[in-house]
Amino acid sequence: MADLDLQPKLIVGEGWADFALLDSGHGRKLEQYGPHRFVRPEPQAMWTPRNSDWRADAEFVPGSDEDGGGRWQFDRPLPREGWELGWNDVRFTASCTPFRHLGFFPDMAPVWDWMGERLAGKPDAQTLNLFGYTGVGTLALSEYGPVTHVDASKKSVAQARANAQLSGMTDRPVRWIVDDAAKFTAREVRRGRRYDGIILDPPKFGRGPDGEVWRLEESLPGLINDCAQLLDADSRFLFLTVYAVRMSSLAIAGLLAEALKDLPGTIEHGDLCIREQGEGGRHLPTAIFARWKS
Predict the structure, then answer these.
(1) What are the φ/ψ torsions at residue 67 (nearest 5 degrees)?
(2) How many other CB atoms sit within 10 Å of the CB of residue 175?
(3) Which residue, 92, 166, 270, 278, is most buried by CB atoms nearer than 10 A?
(4) In angstroms, how far is the first alpha carbon of the chain from the final one?
């Protein structure tokens, strides 16, 4: 039976050559993405900014309600088709999306490192990436073996394929699948499939390619139960991240503990965060997580 560690953990992301959290405060954050700087909303940055100079190429101004919306305001012209960035050996295109993101989630970098460590030494490790978005994590994990990348958005999967080409990784063993994550996972259970690792990064709300409705609080328990059936005692991990919800990491850890009660190992939970650049940089929380490791 997997043991639930009640002590919260902190997974800290640091900047690298193509990304940095420069400053944060007053509900916003200032970031560097390659040659460009951006200001985006960040409700958890309740403190005062360290610097007064927040000149940026663009700022995302949120809508009037807490459920989303908003628009970019540009102070300088940006490449219409985006611009190339890199993380380790993975190359990808960043761009200003309508959802305030820039094409990848930099706070996931230490998570990709952790998953690579868990898979190291296991030949041809099979990984399932649900809600795989633009494929940066998928390409990072493909170093260790076949990856099944699932996302309901044709546009996101097309961008993931383009990132594979940009990275010179089109020969990697990746299955690119446009599908509803819950329906796909249920079919994998019926097929008797198993995986060495599963990563889930579900949205608060979403729709599948055939109009399927995803609501996190209602849909997540069933999906986790199906994921548990795709793992066994020889599997290495399940990693779940949750953004922008009023929910405790202990709550989603309890969900994993119930679903994975028949497996050995440990369940941990806590916060993802990114540390500001420079001496005395503060830690800005970005998401909660729960993970099982064998």
Answers:
(1) -90, 5
(2) 12
(3) 92
(4) 10
Name the token pair of 214. 């995803």
In the predicted model, is pLDDT for residue 78 greater than 60?
A: yes
Would you say 145 and 196 are in contact if contact means Cβ atoms under 8 Å apart?
yes
- Our count of domains for the chain comes to 1
CATH no. for residue 240? 3.40.50.150
Residue 18 near residue 87 (C-beta atoms within 8 A)? yes
Give the structural domain span for 228: 3-293
> Alpha helix (H) ranges present in 167-235?
181-191, 216-229
pLDDT for 67: 57
What is the tens place of the pLDDT at every residue in 102-134? 999 999 999 999 999 999 999 899 999 999 999
Token readout for 264 is 């050995």
Q: Specify the length of the chain in residues.
A: 294
pTM: 0.94
